[in-house]
Amino acid sequence: MKKKTKMSKKNNKLQNYDVVIIGGGMVGASQAAALAHLPIQICVVDAGPGKSHWSPEVYDLRVSAITRASQNVFINTGVWQGIENRRVQPYEEMHVWDATGDGSIDFYAEDIGEPNLGHIIENSVIVGALLDVLKQHDNVNYLSHSKPTALEVSDTSVQVSLDSGQTLDAKLIIGADGARSWVREQLKIETEGWSYGQKGLVTTVKMSAEKTPGAWQRFLPSGPLAFLPVSSDEYSIVWTTAEAAADHLLTLDDAAFIAALNEALGSSEIGEVINVAQRAAFPLRLQHSKTYCKSRVVLVGDAAHTIHPLAGQGVNLGLMDVADLTQILERAHSKHQDIGVYSLLRKYERKRKGRNLLTMFSMDGFKRLFCNTDQPWVAIRNSGLSLTHKLNPLKNKIIRQAMGLTDDFPKLTKNPE
Ligand SMILES: Cc1cc2nc3c(=O)[nH]c(=O)nc-3n(C[C@H](O)[C@H](O)[C@H](O)COP(=O)(O)OP(=O)(O)OC[C@H]3O[C@@H](n4cnc5c(N)ncnc54)[C@H](O)[C@@H]3O)c2cc1C
Fold first, then answer.
1. CA angle 312-410-413, nearest 5°?
2. Is 311 touching ligand 1 by the criterion CB < 6 Å?
3. How many structural domains does the chain have?
4. Cβ–ligand 1 contact at 29 (below 6 Å)
5. Cα 270 to ligand 1 centroid, rounded to whole Å
6. pTM listed for this prediction
C-alpha cells in the first residue's frame, strides 16, 4: 500500500495512489465507495463543485429509477441510509400502455413477493449521500474543481496531470467521466452509436389525483412519456420526443405546456397534470465504446455506454459495472496481484460488454418497435403487450430481471441480509 501524500492545490509534486477515478458523479463516486474498504489509496477527480445541490424544498429535475440490484450496491457501500435520510420514493406498480392501440401491461410488486419494484431517487440525493460516505474514508481524497490535462501510461504505473499543476501516479485509472469521456478520448478508444434525433424533456408535475405510487409509461409514436412518482400525487416526467418538438415544448408557458402534456398522457388513473416546475431537455444518444480497457485504464458507466432512457437503465448499468469491477479488483488485491494489468481489466470487459450490449439493444429495439406507426407493427406490439400481460410467469420473469433479481449478479448487488 502506498502512503497518501498531503494534498495542496498548487503543488505539482507527484502524489501516489493505488486508484485514481476521473469523474465523481453517481458512478465514479459509487466506484470509490465500493473500493474504500480495501487498504488502498484512492483519489477521485471531478470537474464539478464536489457538493450536491439537493434541496428539501424543491425536487431535483434529474431523477433515476433505481433497481433492487443498484439499491443493494448502495446498502452494501453504506450509502443507502444517507439516501433515505434525504428523500426516496419506492414504487409498487408499473403500468405501460400503447397510445396507438389497446395493448397494455401492468406489473405489481406483490405478484413477485417484493415490497416494491424499485425506487425513484433524485440524482442530487444519490450524489449527496455518496459524497458524505466518501468523506468518512481517510483513504479517499476527492478533488473537486479539477480536470485532467494529460495521461501517461507506463509498464508499471499511470500518471495523470491536473489543471491545478498536480500530478497523480496510480496503478489504475478508472474513467467515470460520463458520455463525453476525456479518459476515453486520451486512450483513442472509438465509440459506435447514433443520435436518436430526440430529446428527453424532464420536469416535475403535480396531479389532480392521489394514487399508490406507481410508474406510468405511455408509448406515443413520437416516443415514450414516463411519469415516475416522487410522492403520491407528484411525478418526475421524462418526455421523449423529436428534438425540435422538445425545444418547442420548452418555450411554451406553463398553461400551454400543461395542456400539451395532458393531451400526450391521455386519460389515466393518475388524473390530470395541474402544476409544473421548471423544464430542461437532454439530447439522447446510443453510444458504446469499442473497448472498455487498455493497460492500467478502464471505463465505467456512461463513459463506456449510454443508452436510451426509456427503461431507466443507464445509471443501473453503470452501477453493475462498478459491482463487477470491484469484485475483480478485490480478488486481485487479496492475491497481491497488480490491479492495473490488462489481463485483469479484460476480465471486467468480458463480463460487462455482453450484458451492456444486450440491454442497450433491447432498449433500442423497444424504442424502434414502439415508435413505428406501420399498421402490422402496431398490431404485433399491441397483441404482444396484451399476451405478455396475461402470461404471469413470463411477466414476473421480465420484471425480476429488470430489477436485477438474478443469481449471476456480483456480490455487491446482493441483499446483505
Ligand atoms: C432524461 C434522462 C433520464 C434518465 N433516467 C434514468 C433513470 O431513470 N435510471 C437510470 O438508471 N438512468 C437514467 N438516465 C441515465 C443516467 O442519468 C446516466 O446513465 C448517469 O448519469 C451516468 O452516470 P455517470 O456517473 O457514468 O456519468 P455522469 O452522470 O455524466 O457523471 C460524470 C461525472 O464526471 C465529471 N466529469 C466529466 N468530465 C470530466 C473531466 N474531464 N474531468 C473531471 N471530471 C469530469 C462530471 O462533473 C460528473 O460528475 C437518464 C438519462 C437521461 C438523459
1. 50
2. no
3. 1
4. no
5. 29
6. 0.92
